[in-house]
Amino acid sequence: MKVKRYKQSQYYAQTGHRYMKVVQDIGLYGEYRCVAEIEARRIAPIILTNVYLPHPTKRDRTTEIDVVFINESGIHVIESKNYSGWIFGREQDRQWTQTLANRKKFKFYNPIKQNELHMRAIEQVLRLDRSHLHSWIVFSDRSTLKRVESSSVPVLNRKSWAKQMTVSRDIRLTATEQIDLYEKLLPYTNASTEIKTAHMNAIQQTKSSTS
Fold this sequence. Notes:
By secondary structure, this protein is α/β, with parallel strands linked by helices. The protein is about 40% helix and about 30% strand.
């Protein structure tokens, strides 16, 4: 049943990833669960996954958006963090902290800052006003947002996020406008192997230079 549901999802249609590959990869599974939550709450939702856009400040670089959801209230840019444990972080911090049950701690880049880069990339490509864009940071329900401070960007566990995000706050985009935005972003989901490899290499270089 789970495999059948997965193969009926937009995530599978767009990525082509095998079910076992997704469930065995923490990051991919988090992305899929975000898509599944939207699909469970909306009829024929407009969703894009793994969108590779030109980097807004670095030439010959790309930035990858996990999930994009388009509805009446605009474009929802979703950064998925499928982490467990306790999460600590403030909006202004460069790094946040994940603390596991065994008390081991891991640092990771502030997802709010990470998604801000994605927002800027979409603005650049679509030439949209920022009022049409909404940033969301989504953590696994296995994590506890122990001390997370953010005044401008919602940081939520997946179930709470899905309930809030799929409710339109106001109507800014017509159905035609939503489809137009979808069609403009769709080509960026078909990144070549070369683009994906270059993107991953750039990430590894950044990690090496900051470690």
